[in-house]
Every structure is written in structure tokens, then in C-alpha cells.
Amino acid sequence: MISFIITTVICFITYLLLTTGSGTDVWIWSYEEILIGIILSLITGFIARNVFVKNNLRMLNPIRWLIFLVYVIGPFFVGMAKANIDVAYRVITGKIKPGIVRISPNLKTDLGITMLANSITLTPGTLSVDIDEDENDLYVHWINIKEEALKKKPVDYKYVCNGFPKWIRRIAE
Amino acid sequence: MIEFYNTLLVVLSLLLICILMAIIRIILGPTAPDRVVGLDTLNTIVVVGMVIFGAAYNLVIIVDVAIVYALLSFVSTLFIAKYLEGGRF
Amino acid sequence: MFDEIIYILLGIGVFFNILAGVGLLRFPDVYTRLHAGTKCTTFGSIFICGSVILVALKMWYQGGAEESVLALHTAIALIAILITNPTGAHAIARAAYRSGVKPAAAVVDDLKNKGRRKK
Lengths: 173, 89, 119
Description:
The complex is a heterotrimer of chains A (about 170), B (about 90) and C (about 120). Chain A has about 170 residues and is mainly alpha-helical. Chain A is about 55% helix and about 10% strand. Chain A contains seven helices and three strands. In chain A, helix 4 (about 60-95) runs antiparallel to helix 7 (about 165-170) and helix 5 runs antiparallel to helix 7. The longest helix of chain A has about 30 residues, at about 60-95. The two termini of chain A are about 25 Å apart. The mean pLDDT of chain A is about 80. Chain B is mostly helical. In chain C, helix 1 runs antiparallel to helix 2 and helix 2 runs antiparallel to helix 3. Chain C has one domain (about 1-100). By secondary structure, chain C is mainly α. The N and C termini of chain C lie far apart (about 65 Å). The chains are: A mainly alpha (about 170), B mainly alpha (about 90), C mainly alpha (about 120). Chains in contact: A-C, B-C. At the B-C interface, helix 1, helix 2 and helix 3 of B face helix 1, helix 2 and helix 3 of C.
């Protein structure tokens, strides 16, 4: 029941964002758009109630959203800028040394693993390829392998994604 | 017709060069995943091009089309990937 | 001053998008092409959508009414790109590995041992 309500409310907010400026009845929305929005988000919430929320309500805490925003604007964006300059260097010179390594970031929730995999894909020289669902380990394609990282297996995650698991543990667990 | 009309159209024509390069990769690509990579890149650039087109002509409806195109191309990419894996639907 | 920021953002975005195209043509195998095709287009999209948002906000400030809607919808399109692009890249990479494409000139390949250890 609670997952149905959360999904419906999020759908309704998205619908309202997409239909701003449709009228002047209720601030900047018209009655028709609000009525259709309520009906459609009830249907969507009923269909997707078991997909979107999985008996785990800690993302409702606004402090986690604040940490998420700080994370995206701060370390994530800096890492992304570095990644693109790195890829630009590799495109122009053509120096690559690729390989697939295994890292174990010790995250437990699905949301955390998803966020880490997306962060890894967008940050310097790495791309998540596969996932070990039993131990939540990630297989990462690395475009320029450092020799000293290969001595220990599984590879220490500090070489691949410096400090991101710490932030994600604070957000999602 | 807005102040930045000419600049935005120049940007749009430069994006067409990127689309051309992605199409060359789709034609040349030795394996099927190469072609899917080209298609994915092409989809992203088309979405950005639609956003710029909507801004240049000041039409919000084209940006809406861009949002729907981004989500649908994501779904199609996932389905092609599932097909290449050999999984059942 | 405001106009120059918009031009600079558009220039950076187009540069990275063209770099993505060049990388697609230059790199040797699927995974390295995914590096170019995902990171560079996402980064370029952030800058181009940001400059479009600035253009819309400037027109809104000068007295337009519809342009705030343009800025909001561009932001939603940007969020859609940001969420879907790395996920799609991950799906393609996994599909490529499972369909038998091995990384070219790989120094190390840990994924080869995955199925064997489980049994």
C-alpha cells in the first residue's frame, strides 16, 4: 500500500512538471490537466507498485537527497570532467592498454550498486561490464591499466573509483 | 526566431557531422555490438539536436518529442542488448 | 558577458560531441568505442543543454512567457539522458561480452573465470 502511494505521488509530480503553463486555474495548471494527471498516475502506480519501491523506505529521508545533490555537483562532476579530458587524450594519441578487472566495493543494496555502476561508467577510464549478483562484485573494463593495481586480486577499488563507494554508502545504505 | 538563431543552427550542422561519423561506424562495424554502439551514440546526439532545434525555433513541443525519443531509444537499446545476449523475452 | 558564457558552453559541448564521433571511428574494439561513445556524448549533452537553459532563461528575463517552460523541459530531457545513457552502455557491454566479443589486446581478463568459479 505504501509503495502504491509513493509511486503515485512521484508520477503525479512528474506529470505536473511536464504540463506547467497549461492554464491559470490552479496557479499555472488547468483543471483538465490535473484531472487527467491524477487518473493516469493512479493507473501507473497500480501497475508499477512492486517495481519502483522494494520494501526499503530510506530514500524518503531528505538529508540523503541533499547528500546526493552535493555528490553529483562536487566529486562526480569533477571526476566526469577528468574522464573526458582523459578520453580526449586517448582519442588523439591512441595509447590504450585495456583489460577487465574485478572489484568488490562491499555495497549491499540494489540502488547503491546501480548508482556505483553508473558513476563508474561516467568517470575516468572505466566502464562497468558485468555484475556478480551473489557477492555484489563488479567487473570493470579499464582502458589504461596500472601495473601496481594488478598485484592483489580482487583489485582494490581505490584505483578504479577513488572514494565513490564511501559517498554512495552514505546515500543509499 | 530568436537572438541566438544563427549560432544554434551552426551548432546543429556541426552535430550533423557527429551523426555522419556514427552512421559510418554503423555501416563499417565488424560485429553486431559495434553497430549497437553506433546506434546508441546516434540516438543521444539526435536528442541533443532536437533540443537545440526546439530552442532555435522557440517550440516547446520539439523538446517534448526529444524526451519521449530519449526514453524510447533507451528501451530499444535494452531490447537489442537482450537479443544479442541470447536471452528469452 | 552572459552571451559569451553561452557561446563558450556551446563550443565545449560541440567539441566533446565531435570527439565522441572521432573516438567511435578510431578505437579498435567494442569496449573502447563504448568509452568514447558514452562519456563524451553525456558530457557534451550536459554543456549543450545547459547553454539552451541559459538561452531560455535570458529570453524569460527579457519578457517572454513560454521560455520558462522551455528551460524546464530541457532540464527534464537532460535528466533523462543522464539516467539512460550509462545504463544503456552497461547493457551493451554485457551483451557484447556474452555474445563472444573479447576485448582486443587485453592485458588481464578477470571475467573469463566467472562461470568456472561458481561451479
